[in-house]
């Protein structure tokens, strides 16, 4: 397993600290979800460090950290016990300050003490389980799910289609789900379990619903300000059959603090077979030709440094960044799991030919690689456009732009164009902002720089096959990046107001840009589309 190193680390060099508690969820200045993590120091007050919420799956109470790295080889605090629970939803909701101080002392820090805890009394023993740990165990198996669970109906975003027929569950994942998650049958079974059981799915939905309802109750206050201030996690635990849990805990007499739920059993999927597909999981067809082999010096033991921003995240391979300690899920009558590889991919099946290594990416060289937990892969590919105030979203959210991304890749690989690209969400306010499938409509902005000109391509996402032309903008008067950004914002706001149409009066107001419309043709394939765009941009 690779070592993850946090960039934000206020402790002394060589100082070992213990992860003692997890605090509130809140949104940062970029409206990104973050989580407060409390570390206990030797002879010093508890220190709270906020981190991107994508690290949530890696956090376990009792972990020891030195120089911002989790000490994997050092013994972790606590003992391992097995607990028999008749119904995990039957208990008492308390807060951190209610936990006996001999188990946990939070030094009167309000953000830590207000966190919700589920208390069970089983055969005369009191068990305290943090709600953040319940959520991590049941739902937050990887960083993708950590972000989806904090969005309305977030789980639905990774599916194209789900159906249950003749005791078989069929799932078509889309590119929002990283391929490394889809390659793991255990991970896909977990997702199917969450979605396929109504009680479990209702529990998942209750996390965001509770956060939103709590923020909306504050009369006269903007919910965004409540999210910024931070909220304790609370949700409805699902009604499970009697189950057995393996936990790591601290025990003092008849009182126990559960630090980690290592596994949970007696889970059921309402199907005897699970069949799923993913766009990148293709069936390989062998053809004549030499197999190209690239030798690299990378290894599975590389160190990664977690940063707070993802200014150069690579999004086109749809991978998760971090390895996560496993939580074991015990299923009754575990279903047969099959991958439906719907697409085909030709691969050379001849002799291996070693080719030189490439130029690499942003992480070539020695030392820890910098990654963001919003990245989908380590490294850089198509660099983003650098705007001051416009917030780009991951390219994996560009649903309906998949073919356009292939065109851009061809312009880079086959035509050698100097390209930057970012994906933005359209402003809200009109029906056009939301696609028929409920997804927020996005657009891709591509910057093409040549020796004689700088042009921009503005392409709207069309998962619903909406008829709207591509715009090609030429920077005739050498406008600054800020001026270009303002023009782009204006165009996006106006096209939403016009219901998804480029009114000529809108385009005429961008007097410092030469704007051409580029129609889509139904018979264009990727090669023809790329060639037509190339002729328009050079």
Task: Give a structural overview.
With 538 residues, this protein is of the alpha/beta class. It is 20% helix and 32% strand. The chain has 11 helices and 28 strands. The longest helix has 19 residues. The protein is globular and about 75 Å long. This is Tn7-like element transposition protein TnsE.
Give me some keywords for this one.
Tn7-like element transposition protein TnsE, 538 residues, 28 strands, TnsE_C, seven-stranded mixed β-sheet, five-stranded antiparallel β-sheet
What secondary-structure arrangement, pairings included, does this model have?
Blueprint: E1 3-6, E2 16-27, E3 33-41, E4 44-52, E5 64-66, E6 69-70, E7 79-85, E8 92-95, H1 110-113, E9 116-122, E10 125-130, H2 131-138, H3 143-148, E11 159-165, E12 168-173, H4 179-182, H5 185-196, H6 198-216, H7 223-229, E13 243-252, E14 255-267, E15 273-277, E16 283-287, E17 291-294, E18 303-307, E19 328-331, E20 336-339, E21 344-348, E22 352-355, E23 369-372, H8 402-413, E24 418-425, E25 442-449, E26 454-460, E27 470-475, H9 481-497, H10 504-508, E28 513-518, H11 526-537
Parallel strand pairs: 1-18, 10-14, 12-15, 14-19, 15-20, 16-21, 17-22, 18-23
Antiparallel strand pairs: 2-3, 2-5, 3-4, 5-6, 7-13, 8-9, 9-10, 11-12, 13-14, 24-25, 25-26, 26-27, 27-28
């Amino acid at each position: 397993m690779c070592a993850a190193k946090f960039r934000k680390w206020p402790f002394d060099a060589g100082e070992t600290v213990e992860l003692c508690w997890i605090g509130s969820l809140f949104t940062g200045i970029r409206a990104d979800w973050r989580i407060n993590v409390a570390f206990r120091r030797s002879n010093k007050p508890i220190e709270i460090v906020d981190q991107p919420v994508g690290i949530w799956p890696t956090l376990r109470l009792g972990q020891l950290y030195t120089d911002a790295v989790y000490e994997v080889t050092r013994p972790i605090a606590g003992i391992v016990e097995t607990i028999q629970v008749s119904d995990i939803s039957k208990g008492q909701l308390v807060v951190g300050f209610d936990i006996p101080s001999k188990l946990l002392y939070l030094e009167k820090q309000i953000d830590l003490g207000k966190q919700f805890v589920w208390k069970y009394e089983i055969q005369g023993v009191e068990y305290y389980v943090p709600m953040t740990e319940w959520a991590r165990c049941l739902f937050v198996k990887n960083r993708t799910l950590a972000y989806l669970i904090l969005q309305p109906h977030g789980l639905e975003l990774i599916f194209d289609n789900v159906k249950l027929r003749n005791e078989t569950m069929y799932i078509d994942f889309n590119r929002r789900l990283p391929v490394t998650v889809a390659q793991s049958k255990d991970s896909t079974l977990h997702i199917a379990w969450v979605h396929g059981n109504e009680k479990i799915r209702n529990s998942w939905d209750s996390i965001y619903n509770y956060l939103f309802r709590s923020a909306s109750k504050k009369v006269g206050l903007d919910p965004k300000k409540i999210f910024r201030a931070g909220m304790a996690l609370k949700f409805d635990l699902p009604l499970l059959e009697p189950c057995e849990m393996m936990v790591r805990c601290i025990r003092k007499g008849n009182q126990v603090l559960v630090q980690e739920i290592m596994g949970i059993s007696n889970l059921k999927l309402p199907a005897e077979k699970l069949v799923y597909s993913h766009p990148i999981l293709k069936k390989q067809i062998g053809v004549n030709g030499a197999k190209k082999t690239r030798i690299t010096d990378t290894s599975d033991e590389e160190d990664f440094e977690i940063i707070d921003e993802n200014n150069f995240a690579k999004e086109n391979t749809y991978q998760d960044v971090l390895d996560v300690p496993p939580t074991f899920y015990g299923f009754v009558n575990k279903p047969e799991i099959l991958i439906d590889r719907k697409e085909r991919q030709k691969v050379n099946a001849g002799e291996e030919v070693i080719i030189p290594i490439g130029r690499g990416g942003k992480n070539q060289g020695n030392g820890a690689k910098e990654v963001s937990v919003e990245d989908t892969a380590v490294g850089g590919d198509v660099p983003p456009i650098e705007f001051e105030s416009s917030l780009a979203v991951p390219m994996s959210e560009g649903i309906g732009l998949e073919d356009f991304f292939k065109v851009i890749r061809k312009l880079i690989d086959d035509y050698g164009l100097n390209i930057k690209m970012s994906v933005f969400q359209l402003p809200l306010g009109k029906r056009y902002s939301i696609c028929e499938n409920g997804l927020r409509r996005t657009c891709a902005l591509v910057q093409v720089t040549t020796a004689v000109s700088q042009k921009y391509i503005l392409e709207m996402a069309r998962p619903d096959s909406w008829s709207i032309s591509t715009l090609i903008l030429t920077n005739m008067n050498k406008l600054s990046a800020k001026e270009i950004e303002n023009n782009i914002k204006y165009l996006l706001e106006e096209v939403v107001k016009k219901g998804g149409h480029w009114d000529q009066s809108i385009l005429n107001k961008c007097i410092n840009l030469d704007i051409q419309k580029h129609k889509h043709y139904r018979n264009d394939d990727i090669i023809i589309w790329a060639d037509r765009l190339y002729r328009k941009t050079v």
